[in-house]
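Title: Prediction job returns without error message
Component: structure pipeline
Severity: low
Priority: P3
Assignee: unassigned

Description:
Job completed but the reporter wants confirmation the result is attached to the right record. Sequence as submitted:
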Amino acid sequence: MNLSRRNLLIGAAAIVCALVILSFRRLFSIYRRFVGGQTVEKVLSAHGARADRKWLPLFTKQGLNYPPRKIVLIATKLERKLEVWARGETAFRHITTYPILGASGTIGPKLIEGDKQVPEGVYHVSSLNPNSEFYLSLELDYPNEFDRAQAAKDGRTKLGGDIFIHGGRASIGCLAMGDEVIEELFILVARTGRERCRVVIAPQEPTQAAFPAPVTQPISWLPELHRLVLTELVQIRGGSL
């Protein structure tokens, strides 16, 4: 067998193995949902103590109680980072920053199902999924009211959905954080209460209090979306952009 044919077979075998693993994870996730294999309470019981040991000194350092009153997760797509902020008595404090290990698409909001874009805007955690095909996940309320309103003006109907912050290292349209990090985020949100958590997804860190418009997408309402995101960042970061 010549070298090129051998490499081709090895590559094909690797692809088949990856597809088998992915299919197994999805089937196992579906199985667990139907049989009730995982619950939020079971995740807290199994991994809560480890996560608490991570979070408690970080919150103490900022003079905050743990769990906090409110939390905000700030994701910047270009820089691929996710910041954790928590509310004190009068202001938010930066707790820590994680790298985003996997995401798809480019700068610019999600417009339609299948465009592989990570949304941009201000969202809330709509549910905690302990049976994710990517270990654990936080589901976001995309499309939110703003997304639906702009889609109605544009005549867009299929906006997509199922946007998560989840484990693993790869994702299409979501944010992959790695299994250990999603464990910590999952438990932080569960301890705080998902109704007291919001998620800001920005195209990138703003430059001179503005975001660059994606040149490939002439979107009339993009300045309005950017104002919403910038206003949120100013409120959380105390005017520091």
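Comment from assignee: result matches the submitted record. Strands lie at 71-76, 81-87, 92-99, 121-132, 135-140, 164-166, 175-176, 197-202.
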